[in-house]
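Figure caption, in words: inputs first, then the predicted bound structure.
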Amino acid sequence: MNSELSKIFFEMSVLMNMKGVQFKPRAFEKAAHSLGVLEEDVREIYSRGGIKALEDIPGVGAGIAERIEEYIKTRHIKDYSGLKKQIPVDVEGLKAIEGVGPKTILLLYEKLGIKNREQLERAARAGKLRDIEGLGEKTEQKVLKGIEFLKQTHGRFILGFTMPTVRDIVERLIKVEEVERVEFAGSIRRMQETVGDLDILAISRHPEKVMDFFVSMPEVAHVYGKGEVKTFVRLKNGMDADLQVVPPRSFGAALQYFTGDKYHNIQLREAAIRQGYKLNEYGLYEGEKFVAGKTEEEVYKKLGFEWMPPELRTNYGELEASASGKLPHLVGYGDLKGDLQVQTDWTDGENSIEEMAKAARKQGLEYICITDHTKRLAMTGGLDDGKVLRQAEEIDRINAKLKAQNEKFRILKGTEVDILKDGSLDLKDETLAKLDVVGASVHSHFNLPEEEQTERIARAMENPNVDIIFHPTGRIIQKREAYKVNVEALIAVAKRTGTVLEINAYPDRLDLKDEYIRKAIDAGVKMSVDSDAHSTAHFQFLEYGIAQARRGWAEKKDIINAHSWQEMLKMLK
Ligand code: DGT
Ligand code: CA
Ligand code: CA
Ligand code: ZN
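Bound structure (2'-deoxyguanosine-5'-triphosphate present):
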């Protein structure tokens, strides 16, 4: 509840400022700041010592304490609603723009009557900000850039593109002498497709040293608040990050709580209440008595659950499954033996077949399948039948060479054949029949009506040579919607024809979505997890495809390339 109140008080301070209220805005801003970094939840403080205890919070006086009480009791603050009615300015929306703070919001409203992001964008584009004292042309440019960025990302970040920064920060925090343990939590630990912010937990006997180190990291662009055990910053990549030091005995409870997701947590807390416990981020309590909290395992166990991987914690039935010992044995991050979608410099990839093979082997794989584009995708230099067959001969030669060198690594012959508008394919059947693995995908006519699109892909699946449908929905996260297609119908056709559906590991693709993965599993349809590599650097993305598979409850048996290439080939049509 602290962060909700922090936001409300901040907004109130800006709104009061706009009305020309004296002194009070500063008090609300201070309270907002203080609640933002407060360790204990206000509800706890209130239930412990009532309004008097609230007043002991730094920056909280009698007036603000009353409003906290009002919010705890009614989830509502009258003054706040009143202010919002008087000045209908979207403070949250404006503040989210990089470089726009309370002062700017006030100026924008007073001078230009700007109330929301759309109005601000229009004004900035029309060059109206540059002449206002205190703003200027630089601010105008910055505002436009900030708005553009928010449009692209909706304030969310693609997991795979963000993870390297996250890991880097966490690894350096671990090395700080005073730090005993560091873990990231939240949507990042759950390996969600997109993530809002970075939540870090740590154990340390000298939290202040950890906070000092954290705010001094070069990735930090702005410090919102720095407390003794909690610090809240904006990173240079635009993402917010918070770091909290928690007592060792509470670490598991905190990790569990801040990993979420929220709906999983609510269910778990209800289970605790049903059994006569109280569960929060400090631990599991029986009355006043602390009964568990050091590890996640002990918290779950006390409540009758098996520990479960964070990817499962979405309130999709994982708690019920865990209570009855029916959790899936998820495919593991080290389980992939091959990658079935790899492009090379024969088309739009950056590296040669051999370079890709070497990089894949370094990544721990035993095989790859080369799947360059076909001629219809002219801009990639797509291959025609003749070139595909020549590439196959080249692969034979490289395989022979690898064998002579006593290398176990195997390169399979394949293609990413274009599915044409009517569902026919861009290569001849006799060519396809000579390849080890045929992937087919849609790269054009994204706007067909759903029925037509579905039929088109279904027709490709009916082709006895087509083994896999690559990136079956064609979405690109934050860039392009999926084409309209009935995935349930495709799953049924995949089942009937023995076609595999791909989980594309490329961080902004990740189709199939988790809900479709579950449906495919229920239908008995097999899937592959492929990187869609266009460079040797892309094999590392396989991790995000596995994460996606895990969030869809996939086991090793469901993923064909979690098996040796000989076994994998047997699983194809
Ligand atoms: P994000 O950052 O939007 O990608 O998603 P999360 O899941 O990381 O959410 P965040 O950062 O707001 O909060 C981190 C975790 O804290 C969340 O996964 C579960 C827990 N949490 C946050 N708010 C609530 C709440 O109102 N109730 C409960 N039970 N847990 C919450
Ligand atoms: Ca988060
Ligand atoms: Ca957060
Ligand atoms: Zn390509």
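The pocket of calcium ion (ligand 3) is lined by residues 186, 197, 199, 242 (CB under 6 Å).
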